[in-house]
Amino acid sequence: MNKILKFSVLFMSITFVLTGCYKLSTPEQLIEKPKSKVEKEIIKESIEKFLPQGSNLTIPLDCKEAGAINKVDIDGDNQDEIVAFYEEQEKNFEIGFIILKKINNSWKMIDLVKGEGFDISYASFYDLNKDGKSEIIVSWDYGDYAKIKSIYTMKQSKIKRIFNGKYRGIEIDDLNNDGKLDIFLFSYDSKRLVITLSVYNYVIDKLKFIDKINIQANYEIGYSNIKVGKASENKKGIFIDIPLGSHSAYTQLIFLENNKLKNAFKDSISKTYQIYPVGSNDIDSDKVIEIGVLTQPIGYEEEALVNIPWLNTWYKWDEKEGLRFVVENYYDYDEGYRFDLPQNWKDKFTLKEYNINNQKRVVFYSLEKSKNIKNEILTIEYFEKNNWKKEEKKLNEQNKKFIYLGENKKTVFVAFLNNKYLDRNKDFYVDRENIHKNFKLLY
Questions:
Q1: Domain ranges for the chain
Q2: CA separation for the pair 76, 155 (Å, rounded)
Q3: Which InterPro entries match (predicted)?
């Protein structure tokens, strides 16, 4: 697989994992957080009695915040109601949700809401104004990029819609830590190639507009992924990964300060430009999101882009420095692993990929001050899993010291350190434990 395809497939796969779900669950699995088999069966039977004729339970396409059946307090009485999403695709193509409340120890339907479009792309529940009642946020899908975003609240035992608008995306978080949940709505003008991000607060049964900002785009899909999370230890931001063409991209970082939306960078494209998409992710699992770009190893200046073994280089946002280096990764997407390079190797190494008689390996080399290759530092070698016992015996007989890194369904990965060179060159020092720790299987 060439590298353009590798990066594209990985980026789309990550985006799907973060934003999409398969609709292949049993009715029992559709119930979110069931407490017992008996309760689960009672809830399932109660819902089925009230579903519109010919309809079935359905999971929102983006199911990271809501399932088909959800227990949530929407009237503020400290007792959970049931919100169940349904679809009917045989005759009327109807979608919507029903609300059930427990009255005298049995579940009764108190309202039904018919949706718009062909599918439910997103649903979530937030107490938007801190009154003890959770609002219902739903995105109705018409099959295009723009979707109908609706917000519902409970009033006098009936569901009332308090907002309805055509937007591509929605995110909810207290971005500026003022105790109020901020509602972010994303739209995209494909003619002007502009993403508009608007922010609202929910005040007295309506959305109050706070601010909006326009963001440059240069491709028909507008943006590929959005993350709301910590940009630093004390500050949250919105990370927007934006394609610039058929394969390049950049990441925009937005803050909310004094009720104004602000860019983190004066020129985000030049700061976060990615020849192939890398995007934003918490790469080091410290709960702070990093921005990734691609770095070309030394020695590949004359190579075609598809032949370069790119390194993913990750940066944290820093209020003073702008972007601060965190870590570099080497990925082999075909074989399914990532290797985090030791930080003391930065700017002092290069690498080469080899495949001789279907025996694959990656070799990391030290560089002289003139940037010429000097010595091998580390080799990661691949062995067919079926042959590993025989190969392991051979390595032991040859007294070759290796580091077992891990294995997947078809391949065993081992590493060889050039200890003689490392003993003489402390700048490249790394121990076996760190090599093993820095190797991570993707699947």
A1: 32-165
A2: 11
A3: Integrin_alpha_N
Cα four-point dihedral sign 219, 225, 231, 236:
positive
Q: Give the pLDDT confidence of 30-76 residue by residue, as tens digits.
A: 444 445 778 888 899 999 999 999 999 999 988 889 999 999 999 99
Distances (CA, A) of 249 to 60, 223, 396, 441: 28, 9, 47, 26
Which of these, 282, 211, 224, lies nearest to 250 by C-alpha position? 224
- pTM for this entry: 0.85
Q: Following DSSP, what letter does each residue of 274-317 receive, concatenated? A: BSS--EEE-TTSSSS-EEEEEEPPTT-TTS-GGG---EEEEEEE
Of 338, 351, 343, 354, the C-alpha closest to 413 is 338
Instruction: Answer whether 185's CB lies under 8 Å from 169's CB.
Output: yes
* Phi, psi for residue 209 in degrees, rounded to 5: -65, 135
Residues 48 and 52: their CA atoms lie apart, in Å, by: 9
C-beta of residue 210 within 8 angstroms of C-beta of residue 254: no
Neighbouring CB atoms inside 10 A of 222's CB total 24
Q: Give Cα separations from 154 to 73, 83, 102, 136 (angstroms).
A: 10, 12, 16, 9
Spatial distance between the Cα atoms of 63 and 20, rounded to a whole number of angstroms:
7
Tell me the residue length of the chain.
Answer: 443
With tokens 């004390």, the residue in question is 234
Q: Which of 328, 273, 286, 249 is nearest to 14 (CA)?
A: 249
Q: Distance (Å, rounded) from C-alpha 175 to C-alpha 384?
A: 49
Residue type, 231: A
- What does the pLDDT look like over 276-333, one tens digit per residue? 999 999 999 999 999 999 999 999 999 999 999 999 999 999 988 889 999 999 999 9
Q: Are 255 and 261 in contact, with CB atoms under 8 Å apart?
A: yes
**Cross-strand pairs, 229:** 237
Which CATH architecture fits 32-165? Beta Barrel (2.40)
Q: For residue 403, is it left (φ>0), alpha (ψ between -120 and 50) or beta?
A: beta
d(CA 240, CA 60): 22
Q: How many CA atoms lie within 13 Å of 258's alpha carbon, on the beta-carbon side?
A: 1
> What are the tokens at 193?
């190639």
Three-state DSSP state, 410: coil
Residue 223 half-sphere exposure toward CB, CA atoms < 13 A: 28
Contacts of 234 (CB under 8 A, 6+ apart): none
User: C-alpha distances in angstroms, 292 versus 241, 284, 311, 338?
Assistant: 10, 12, 10, 14
Tokens of 11: 């980026």
- Which residues neighbour 215 within 8 Å (Cβ) at sequence distance 6 or greater? 194, 195, 196, 197, 240, 242, 252, 254
Nearest to 288 by CA among 232, 327, 239, 235: 232
